[in-house]
Amino acid sequence: MPTATSGKVLVTGANGFIALWVVRTLLEQGYAVRGTVRSEGKARHLKEVFASYGDKLEVVIVEDITKAGAFDEAVKGVDAIEHTASPFHFKADDPDELIVPAVHGTTRVLESALAYGTAVKRIVVTSSCASVMEAQEAPRVFSEVDWNNAAIAEVREKGRAATQPAKYRASKTLAEKAAWEFVEKNKDKLTWDLVVLNPPYVFGPTIHEVSAAEALNESMHDWFYSIFKGSKNAKQLSTIGSSWVDVRDLAEAHVLAIKRPEAGGERIIVSEGPWKWQDWVNVARELGADIPAGDESYDPAKTTHYIVFDTTKAGKLLDLKDHGKGGRRKFAEKNKDKLAWDLVVLNPPYVFGPTIHEVGAAEALNESMHDWFHSIFKGSKNAKQLSTIGSSWVDVRDLAEAHVLAIKRPEAGGERIIVSEGPWKWQDWVNVARELGADIPAGDESYDPAKTTHYIVYDTTKAGKLLDLKYRSIKECLADTMQDLKARGWI
């Protein structure tokens, strides 16, 4: 089936920890997003965080995801669906507090997509390694062929008396099974295919609305208090663990899952690898955290990980080894005693400037330059969008220079370096293009760059210190790029 390499994507439960990163990653990669939340109050934070994307983000209210027809309107006109909405907590009395919204929330999305999602090409469901693994006494490697039937059995046998982890794991297992059963039952009617992503513990920066550490989502609450607040003693730190993935890598996996044709119909474990809490404590202390040492006898090379996941399929289908931030960081850390080289990672935002790679027509420009060209010179954005949508940028020639400096400068070794000229709105580019003689509409003539708010800005202190990089201005970039475009006959 065709995949969704562009267009509009529905993200359910869009105000959640994982979902907000999925929304951000989709927007950054040029998609429009329709997010569902349960109330207008929950929509407010989303709109504020992504205000710079203008009408590329739409937020709709779905009060009860378990109701029949809950997503009937939301699925109309979208090219793909990322279903992330599902409860995760360890406070349920009745197992149905978790199971009903998990199962019905999933099937309601699929029912609506079947009935009204005429443009939908792919649906990605966020499941969990909770539906893959089973607790046991001997070490084991789990893969996508495994199911957590033990949790379902415990909940059916014990009901309210089942353990909290079993209640949660049963909810995820039953919800995922329901999704695959729905697809099998309706396979002759479907115009879309299904991908299920199974992450373990998800950690990383929080961009969803959270007022205090106590209000963190379940996984980050446990992470924060275990590492920084001493909720675990030394023995627990060195013996308790699981597997994990960075929330940003998981968000990237969600986007890759709607892009890659070969991911269709697959169940995919997305995991960076195993850990014990002591691993996190040790690294936090290396980074300057003023926290107790924990178990100083701990040796990561000698510890036993009882639950490990085989991520071969994710590597093959999503190529996450090249996209995931965690994988690159961990490789260098794991192999530091064997390496005869060091690593530098450069992190640019939008990259603009003259094109010298082979490109036959404006429509064939790479993603960032395609958006740049059509926004400034072809009127793809209206006046309001020009003055409200923006990000940060760097000239491609400055980024190239940064690459060369990164292999020259000893002090750059082992560093992660943001390379950015600064923030912009599309109207800034339009104004300068007109100064340079471009025959294009004025856009939003009330726009005042001194009064605009930039929601995403990067600290480039490190690049200045380590690379001593000098950046081209918008005017310099535009002048040279316009000359290139004229030579090609595109403006």
UniProtKB/TrEMBL annotation:
Keyword Oxidoreductase in annotation: yes
GO biological process terms held by the UniProt record: methylation
SUPFAM superfamilies noted in UniProt: NAD(P)-binding Rossmann-fold domains
Pfam family, one: Epimerase
Source taxon at top rank: Eukaryota
Keywords noted in UniProt: Oxidoreductase
Family in the record: Belongs to the NAD(P)-dependent epimerase/dehydratase family. Dihydroflavonol-4-reductase subfamily.
Name recorded for this polypeptide: NAD-dependent epimerase/dehydratase domain-containing protein
